[in-house]
Every structure is written in C-alpha cells, then in structure tokens.
Amino acid sequence: MTLNILLAAKEERWPLYEGPLNDAFKAAGLVDVHLATDIAPSDVDYIVYAPNSDLKDFTPYTKAKAVLNLWAGVEGIVGNQTLTIPLTRMVDPGLTQGMIEWVCGHVMRHHLGMDAHINNPTHEWAPSPPALAWDRSVVVFGMGELGSACASALAKFGFNVSGWSRSEKTIEGVTSYHGAQGLKTALTKAEIAVLLLPDTAATNNTLNGETLAMMPKGAAIINPGRGPLIDDDALLQSLDAGHIGHATLDTFRIEPLPTDHPYWAHPKVTVTPHIAAETRAKYSSLTIAENIRRGQAGEPFLHLVDRSAGY
Ligand code: NDP
Ligand code: OXD
Questions:
Q1: Distance CA 203, CA 76 (A)
Q2: At what angle do helices 14-27 and 281-297 cross, to 10 degrees?
Q3: Which residue out of 77, 141, 146 has the highest number of ligand 1 atoms within 8 Å of its CB and is therefore the one to mutate?
Q4: CA–CA distance from 256 to each of 66, 157, 280 (Å)?
Q5: Model's pTM, two decimal places?
Q6: How many CA atoms lie within 13 Å of 46's alpha carbon, on the beta-carbon side?
Q7: Beta partners for residue 66, in sequence order
Q8: Contact assessment for residue 241 and residue 220, using Cβ atoms and an 8 Å cutoff
Q9: What ligand is nearest to the CA atom of residue 97?
Q10: CB contact at 8 A, 226 and 75
Q11: Are strands 137-141 and 160-165 parallel, antiparallel or unpaired?
C-alpha cells in the first residue's frame, strides 16, 4: 500500500525538501512512499507541516495519523480546533546546533563588550578589559531542548549559568530555578538573559515593566524565543531609562518587523530577522522520517506537543 505524505508548505519549500525527505524515508526503511504537495485529503497518511502553510482546516484529512510540524514553535497550530490527531514538533541536531552558535555568539558580544571596539569612530584608546566568563551571570529562560543545550554550551565557556523553566532540571554546571519565586531569583541574576520559552498564554510578557526592573542595571536581553515573551513598550522604556543595557531580538510580535517599528532605529537594540536557528531540510527530514517510521510500526511518536500546555 502506498504511503501518502503531504508536504503542506509554500511551493518554494518543495525543491528544498523533496530530495532530503525522500532520502530520509529510504534510510528509515519506508517503502512505496508518495511525497507531494497536492494529495487528495482523504488519501493523506501524514502531513509534514510548515507554519506558513495555507492548510488550516484538517477536517478532510480523515485517515491522517499525525501532523509533523517543521518548526520547534507550534503557537500557530497548537490551538487549531480542527486538528484532533497527534501533533509533533521539530527537534533536530541542526536546529539545536544553530541555536547554540547564535546564542553563544550574541552572549559573547555582550560579555566582551565588542561593540565598543567595532564602532570606535574617534579612535579612542580606552582599555577596559572585560570580566571573565567565570564572573558573568547568564540566565536562560526556558530550559527545553534548545535552552538546555545553550545553557550547557555557555557553562562550558565558564559562564555562571542558571536556567528557569516550569519544572526543575539537573544539568551539569547549570543552577536550576522554577516557578514564580524561581523567576524572581533568576531575574535578579540575569546580567545576560536568553529567552528560549515557547509562545503560550503563560509566557506572554514574561519580561514586563515589573520583571525588567528586577534585572541588574545594564543587563542584556537576547530573545530568539518569540516576540510575545516581551512587553515591547516596557522594554523600550527600560532601555531609554538606562536600566536595560541592550536587547538583541530575533523574534517579534509581528514578522517581518514593520519598517517603522522603534526597534529598528533604537541604538540599544539589535534586530536579526528570525534567523537564530533555521530548520534545515538535511537534518529535519531525519526527524520527520523517524516519526513516520514510528507511526507505521505502532511505536510512540517523538516530540509530541502537549496540546493543553501549548508547547
Ligand atoms: P521546548 O518545548 O523543548 O522547551 C520549552 C521550555 O520552556 C521548557 O523548559 C519549558 O519548561 C519552558 N516553559 C514553558 N512554559 C513555561 C512557563 N510558563 N514558565 C516557565 N518555563 C516554561 O522548546 P525548544 O527548546 O525546542 O524551543 C523553545 C522555543 O524556541 C520554541 O518554542 C520557539 O518559539 C523558539 N525557537 C526559535 C527559533 C529561532 O530561529 N528564533 C528556532 C527554534 C525555536 P519545562 O521543561 O518545565 O516543560
Ligand atoms: C522554530 C523557529 O520554531 O524557527 O523552529 O522559530
């Protein structure tokens, strides 16, 4: 029996995914696979789903066994009432490695104060050596697949690393905080804060006027998580008041970030266009194929989304 796999994505994704997905299906031992972007809904067995797909009504996909999201973040699909089959999200080594590199790079920029030397138009000779990583406290908010990998990598550099999440974690070299009281303690330690929380009702405005004020003066915020984690007006106020020192933002409430948004022109804000970690077809196809293999073998899916928690 042919296994029908729908790639629900914009047309431009097809050339990127066709080869890697078919190769990964073969490597996973899946035979007689038909991968396409236009399969009759009632024939589809699995849906590989890109968040910008036009597919919003899953009702006609009567025999589909799962929707396999190509992104780690699921805020665009998790609340879809027409989706009643299992939903998995992307966890793959390429995504994790990309996030480690991006986060460590931006943490290092702030830790070493690189900007002062990259932009020095007056050729000022003002030696002000940076602290050692041992004496710098970095807090990662959201200690899941990506946050815990970044926290471990930062700990290996020697940073004094803490992590905050819903549940307590045991990670070598990383102090774990959780819950409301844990959040307060974590904030007070966050000379550099990395946000890797998902976008849910509970994480909305995690950084707001009150919580920003708990952070050390001059703190840097790095947000590859999602735009709604931050109250934008409160952040701009805190930057203008000289409390928060800098914000490096990769994700926004509206993307692309509107050209007239104050973040673009703000001297203490760095905007990157949602590039912290890309889902790369070469690696993500392996996760997709493994989950389809599992589905066919009657084994539990990996990386299932908890629909009630929203991530
Ligand atoms: P995970 O689901 O593995 O981790 C989420 C973490 O957030 C968990 O540690 C979880 O706690 C914690 N968390 C969730 N809700 C709360 C809460 N209310 N209070 C405290 N902690 C909470 O996700 P990933 O690590 O894979 O990805 C994280 C996010 O990164 C994605 O959702 C996405 O938004 C973003 N992302 C951005 C990319 C980019 O290019 N900018 C690329 C990829 C992802 P617990 O462990 O206790 O459940
Ligand atoms: C993701 C992302 O969630 O790229 O995977 O933001």
A1: 15
A2: 50
A3: 146
A4: 30, 33, 20
A5: 0.98
A6: 25
A7: 46
A8: no
A9: 1
A10: yes
A11: parallel
Cα 144 to ligand 1 centre (Å): 5
Contact 190, 161 (CB under 8 A): no
- H-state helical runs in the chain: 14-27, 93-112, 115-118, 145-157, 179-189, 209-214, 232-240, 262-265, 281-297
Annotated catalytic residues are 226, 274
**Residue 68: strand pairing partners:** 48, 88
**Mean pLDDT of all residues belonging to the chain:** 98
Q: Is the CB of 226 under 6 A from ligand 1?
A: yes
Cis peptide before 256 (omega within 30 of 0): yes
Residues 6 or more apart whose Cβ sits within 8 Å of residue 210 = none
Rounded CA gap, 5 and 36, in Å?
Answer: 7
Check if 279 has its Cβ closer than 6 Å to any atom of ligand 2: yes
- What's the confidence (pLDDT) of residue 60? 98
Domains of the chain and CATH, by start? 3-92+279-297 (3.40.50.720), 93-271 (3.40.50.720)
Nearest Cα neighbor of 112 from 191, 47, 42 is 191
Question: Could you read off the pLDDT of 78-102 as tens digits, one per residue?
Answer: 999 999 999 999 999 999 999 999 9
